[in-house]
Amino acid sequence: MNSAKNLGIKKIPETTESITKERFYSLIPEDYSRIDFMREILKNFSLQTAKEKNKSLKYCIKKYDC
User: Do the beta carbons of residue 1 and residue 10 sit within 8 Å?
Assistant: First the structure.
């Protein structure tokens, strides 16, 4: 959660099901480039959290035994 605040994300979504590319881009603070923002997100990425927040990802990981 502190990572999100450090990136300027005010509200962390309960799920990522409705995050479109446009909505994601709208989260990028003015002082970050798109690439830098994505790099910072990946530094704090958690597959476990991602599975909890996205049903499609959870399904794929389970189906393909990743």
Answer: no
